[in-house]
Design goal:
The complex is a heterodimer of chains A (about 375) and B (about 450).
Chain A lengths: L2 H24 L8 E8 L7 H16 L7 E5 L34 E2 L5 H9 L18 E8 L2 E2 L2 E4 L3 E4 H13 L5 E7 L15 E5 L9 E4 L6 E4 H10 L10 H6 L3 H4 L4 E3 L31 H6 L16 H10 L15 H23 L4
Parallel strand pairs in A: 1-2, 1-4, 2-3, 4-8, 8-9
Antiparallel strand pairs in A: 5-6, 6-7, 9-12, 10-11
Helix pairs in contact in A: 2-5
Chain B lengths: L6 H20 L1 H9 L10 H14 L13 H10 L5 H37 L6 H11 L17 H10 L1 H8 L4 H16 L3 H14 L7 H12 L2 H18 L1 H6 L1 H13 L12 H6 L5 H14 L1 H7 L4 H15 L5 H13 L12 H23 L6 H34 L7 H6 L6
The chains are: A alpha/beta (about 375), B mainly alpha (about 450).
Family (chain B): Belongs to the PIGU family.
Pfam family, one (chain B): PIG-U
Protein name (chain B): GPI transamidase subunit PIG-U
């Protein structure tokens, strides 16, 4: 044990600490995102592709339920189901034969509908290459701290996805679009989910980092629908999406479930096809990635677990007496004040002097009397 | 002004007033139903928007011309505000019923004045005035007060009683009245104006023309035939200019209220929305279909075209019939009715009243009998209502059906105008060539054709 050896030993120990610190920093699996976006697209139209619309609308509902606001969801649908003349339940879209949930509801916001769902618009959306006239509600205004959940459904094949019977997008196009997004620092992480036939082929060509992809079926394998509704007449949901939703229905905003749990729930017996995952581009370990990293929104509130029973506090005062607070007395003076506040003033514009309406009445009266006088005079032929 | 009518006429006039006063009070939904119908009221003359304007002024105290809803001129709103502060239904009924009765009374007056003028002219113009017996017979028939309805028209003008019956029992006039469309005020002032022309009270008629054109925009075009009429009587250009200046002064006077409400806004709402056809609404007229079917590139072209079309026959009619200025007025008013952009049945009523009074000596010379026009009109009216219902409520037809029938309606009026023009021309020809036609058989001897 000489001094040199001690010093080397100490240095080595410190080095391991330093190295392990770096490793700790590297393997810190907390996501660094600050906002969440979702791009949900159904690439088919017509009545017999009811299930694709229902797939996307279900995902839309789930994503909204878990907290992503409409301003951060881009929904691209052909939107020809709810008001289709063949729809036995006009204005409604269901994803289950029990028709328990109406997906179409009252407040869905479709950003691209009908024939606006094209490959060009999709790629422009992802890369944000628009002219100045494109409204910001139809743009993907993400930054480098955004996690994006991209869900695509429709009819697909070996490395392509069909858009509305007119065109296709290939896996190369998609990969290049993602690379452009990476270059422009438009995402932190992307979770790409695709539910079509031979879906896994669509993500084979990705080459940008931080993309996690799941697909519903392998090459030469079809994805199947789950069930159909007798009265609607067509299939209402696909299997892959059905089981995803099944898992996600049990997730709330505070859930700690991870993506690995989701992927573990995919079984061949359920989906009837081999679901695939591509995680080599994704830096974090999937068992540390929360579902809410992609499906929910970053919350700005902290949930507080209250110690006391809020219901009790609301209905009892300090001494423990029951106080009935359903009837509130309002002073009459308050009502009177409120009435005065609702007075609508005469609208004054730039060209007109601020005449209140009473002078208008006076002027009108004078004018009418003048006209009557002229009438009388001229009827006696003085003029 | 004192009318000498028989008891039956007075009775019918009184009952007419009472019916038109009380029926809408008891059947208030009738008025709403007809007001919503496209045949009887459009944007510029609907009672609904009048009430809305009054509400905005009186209760809410906002400028009613801020938005696009009110298309009535401010003086009309002011008039109603003056009379009807509390917005009571009865006063509305009263105003409308009184207006209607005034129209009827003045119509009778007009008819009588025309008869007198015709008699005077006949005595004056007819150099071979030997057929005194015939004229006496005409006098006897015209002044015959205690008789049945006359179907034979040896006299040129309709009997008073017939006029009263026509006006009080005409279903279109009744329905147009019950819909409370404000076109009735325009019609009132046109009739008053025509009356005052015959009584040679030209200032008053210019005043009434100015009120009329202030209320709706199109009677403005009538300044030309009226100045021509005055000129035929006075034959001094200076006085014509005087009357023109009066007209301009009156219009400006009426428009002073516009400044209180925001001049730009009032002009926009009341007049520009008519000229530029801002509110494209399916109606009986010719304009609307073009604006929903063409490319926007051609909008301005068609607006200009239709406005020109509306004006283009005024000067030719005035010039051609300058020796018979009443006829030129009749044709000009009819032309305006045909080519208006928001016509209603109230305009058709005006047309039929003019035919009843001014056009009645021309009926003998018509090529298409009036009965035929009436039958086709009946079918057309039924189809208009039907196709509008089919289009709007059942979602089964489309605009083409409705416009097709609207075109037939306009063709009818157009044919009537052409026919009356022809009738006047042939009558003039007969008079110039001193040929007297006494009845149908003599009419068939000579067949005039236009080269």
């Amino acid at each position: 044990m000489n001094l040199g050896g001690v010093i080397i030993y100490v240095v080595l120990v410190l080095a391991t600490f330093v190295v392990s610190q770096e490793q700790l920093i590297e393997s810190n699996d907390d996501s660094r995102h600050t906002n969440n976006w979702a791009v949900l697209i159904s690439t088919s139209r017509f009545w017999f592709n009811y299930r694709h619309m229902a797939n996307v609308l279900s995902m839309y509902r789930t994503v909204k339920k878990l907290g992503i606001p409409d301003s951060q969801i881009i929904l691209m649908l052909a939107d020809d189901i709810a008001c289709n003349p063949r729809n036995a339940f006009p204005g409604s879209v269901f994803n289950n034969a029990d028709r328990a949930i109406d997906l179409y509801g009252d407040n869905i916001e479709v950003d691209y509908r009908g024939y606006e769902v094209t490959v060009e618009n999709f790629i422009r959306l992802l890369t944000d290459r628009w002219g100045p006239e494109q409204p910001s509600s139809k743009r993907l205004l993400t930054d480098e701290r955004s996690n994006i959940f991209i869900y695509m459904t429709g009819h697909g094949g070996d490395e392509f996805l069909k858009f509305q019977d007119a065109e296709e997008i290939s896996s190369y196009d998609l990969a290049d679009a993602f690379e452009q997004m990476y270059e422009k620092k438009r995402y932190n992480e992307i979770f790409f989910m695709i539910d079509t036939c031979q879906a896994n082929t669509m993500y084979t060509k990705f080459y940008s980092p931080n993309i996690l992809a799941v697909g519903s079926s392998r090459l030469n394998e079809s994805s199947y629908s789950h069930h159909s509704d007798i009265e609607i007449g067509v299939a209402v949901i696909d299997r892959f999406t059905y089981f995803n939703l099944d898992f996600l229905e049990n997730i709330d905003k505070n859930s700690n479930k991870t993506i690995q749990d989701l992927i573990d729930s995919y079984t061949f017996e359920n989906i009837h096809s081999h679901a695939g995952v591509r995680k080599d581009l994704f830096k974090r370990d999937l068992s540390n990635v929360l579902i809410t990293d992609f499906f929910g929104n970053v919350q700005k509130v902290v949930i507080d677990e209250p110690d006391e029973d809020i219901l009790y506090i609301a209905n009892h005062d300090e001494n423990g007496n029951y106080v009935n607070k359903t009837f509130v007395t309002v002073e009459e003076d308050d009502l009177k004040i409120k009435k005065h506040e609702i007075d609508v003033k005469f609208d004054s514009s730039d060209e007109v002097t601020n005449n209140p309406i009473h002078s208008v009445e006076k002027t009108g009266r004078i004018l009418l009397i003048l006209i009557a006088v002229i009438w009388l005079i001229s009827s006696y032929k003085f003029i | 002004m004192m009318l000498e009518l028989d008891v039956r006429s007075y009775l019918i006039i009184a009952i007419n007033f009472l019916v038109k006063l009380w029926v809408p009070l008891y059947f208030s939904r009738l008025s709403t139903f007809l007001d919503n119908s496209i045949l009887f009221s459009t944007f510029i003359n609907s009672f609904k928007s009048l009430k809305e304007g009054l509400f905005l002024i009186n209760k809410l105290e906002i400028n009613p011309y801020d938005g696009d809803i009110i298309n009535h001129p401010p003086l009309l709103l002011s008039f109603f505000t003056l009379l009807n502060r509390d917005n009571s239904d009865f006063i509305y009924e009263l105003i409308y019923a009184i207006t209607d009765s005034i129209i009827l009374v003045k119509l009778l007056n007009f008819n009588n004045l025309l008869k007198e003028k015709n008699k005077n002219e006949k005595e004056f113009n007819d150099e071979d005035y030997e057929n005194e017996f015939r004229n006496e017979k005409i006098d006897e028939i015209n002044n015959d007060n205690d008789n049945k309805i006359r179907n034979d028209r040896n006299g040129d003008y309709f009997h008073d009683f017939n006029v009263v019956l026509f006006y009080c029992f005409n279903p279109l006039i009744l329905l147009s009245f019950f819909s409370k469309s404000t076109i009735i005020f325009t019609n009132l002032f046109i009739i008053l104006m025509l009356n005052n022309l015959l009584t040679k009270n030209y200032t008053l008629s210019i005043l009434q023309l100015s009120i009329c054109s202030y209320l709706s925009y199109f009677p403005l075009y009538l300044i030309f035939p009226i100045l021509n009429y005055i000129y035929q009587d006075i034959k001094s250009i200076k006085k014509i200019i005087k009357y023109l200046i009066f007209f301009i002064i009156f219009i400006l006077l009426l428009s002073t209220l516009n400044f209180c409400f925001g001049f730009q806004k009032v002009i926009n709402n009341c007049y520009l929305s008519i000229i530029l056809f801002k509110k494209i609404q399916p109606n009986l007229g010719l304009w609307w279909y073009f604006f929903i079917e063409i490319f926007e590139f051609f909008n301005n072209f068609y607006i200009g075209l239709f406005n020109m079309y509306s004006f283009i026959m005024i000067l030719p009619f005035t010039y051609k019939f300058n020796k018979e200025p009443m006829i030129s007025l009749f044709l000009c008013i009819s032309w305006i009715i045909l080519t208006k952009n928001y016509p209603v049945i109230g305009d058709l009523n005006m047309f039929s009243l003019l035919i009843l009074t001014i056009g009645s000596p021309l009926i003998n010379f018509l090529q298409i009998p009036l009965l035929l026009i009436n039958i086709v009109l009946f079918v057309v009216l039924v189809l208009l209502v039907l196709f509008y219902y089919l289009w709007m409520d059942l979602n089964s037809g489309n605009s083409n059906f409705f416009y097709g029938v609207g075109l037939v309606y306009n063709i009818l009026i157009g044919f009537a105008i052409i026919d009356f023009t022809w009738s006047q021309l042939s009558k003039t020809w007969y008079e110039e060539n001193h040929i007297e036609i006494h009845d149908d058989e003599e009419r068939k001897i000579i067949k005039l054709t236009q080269i």
